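Below is how a single chain appears once it has passed through the pipeline. First comes the sequence as given, then the structure the pipeline wrote out for it. We keep one example in the README because the format questions we get most often are answered faster by looking than by reading.
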Amino acid sequence: MTKVLVVDDNLAILNFLNVFLLQSGGFEPKTLQDSRDAFDLLKKEKFDVLLLDMDMPHVSGLDILKYINENNINIVTIVLTGVEDVDLAISAMKCGTFDYMLKPIDEEKLLDTIHNALKNVQLEQIKPGETGIASRDDLKHKRIFENIITNNEEMIRIFRYVEKFAVTDNSVLIWGESGSGKELIAKAIHEISKRKDKQFIAVNAGTFAHELFSSEFFGHEKGAFTGADKDKTGFIEEANGGTLFLDEIGELSLPIQVKLLRVLQEEEFYKLGSTKNIKVDVRIIAATNKNLFDEIQNGNFRKDLFFRLNINSINLPPLRERLEDIPLLANFFLGKFNEKYQKNVKKICPSLMNCLKNYPFPGNVRELMNIINSAIIIETGTELRRTSLPHFFHTQQCCDEELNNGLKPSSLQEIEKGHIRKVLNYTGGNRTKAADILGISRVNLHAKIKKYELE
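Resulting structure:
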């Protein structure tokens, strides 16, 4: 039986949830109207799930969340509130809340959320090295993950999450730096899902100017604007029945966010220049390299869209936290580009491999791929050497002998700034080529150039 504690100052809601959970089966609910008693109750009894109101007299829901964190109480929290307050929602999420739901409560969604929360807990309780966590052997869909090169325990743990999330139709939000493999994870979700025989459409929101994105995304009717000489099918319609992957979702303009929210809520949209609504059945998987909580607070991202997208969440580690994967990936790319360019580079020299292991890779896996790609083109021997690396790489203090010279290591921001400057010098200021080498979008590169004052 799953023990559920419900804390709410509204007696009618407590009674409703008590009856609902009992009738649903598998739950042992306990209700609490006076939030002042929550601290003692949480300390004395063990509960699996906490359904928590936020706006209560005496002791608020946020106070209870802070108490849980400060005392390391192992409980999954789902916030239920009638107050649509973005600051409150962000504070709750930062305190480790699994989900945030507005009243009146959708019973089916609440059950799904509780079950998903409990599944996540089961996955998180598996310790590294136990029950094959560092192995793919017990994954149900091993073949799907074959093209994701990794031996990293956290990545394999993520594969387990993917298998759980994929069988639902819930939206998924993938967090991770540029080049960390977000699209590969999105494809895996699609290929495991019941939509696998339909289209998987991948769109990078950062590559379109805002005025063009609406037309590309929703399509348009002939004559909708100057140059629209024929009807156009948009990405959302192409993905009907399948999956639409929206990378860099944080780059979407607010007007487009409103239209995307309508697709998620109403499952319909309008083409540009048309008054006829089109019904669509599509699963949305979004990805971001931005902190969307900050974007919400700054007014750049809609909170209602965020909560629609963030039903299930995946956080991908950057390559610098997956050091054991660097040799695997480097040798994989060595074989791939040997075949592509009909070269005979048999191995990577040890000093170069050490250099790669100590480099921070701001562009992650995509940057490593581009570095090996470039190096193989230049290399004339049978061993990939440091002399084959792009010029900007030679000046980085990335090798063991350089890090051990007694100098204080640079911060990641300093390294990223210097690296971007050298890539821009390497490309002669060509931002499109620089973005490609770095493994980030041109929009993201422009933002970093502005941030580091590299104009």
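The first helix runs from residue 11 to 24.

See the next section for the split statistics.
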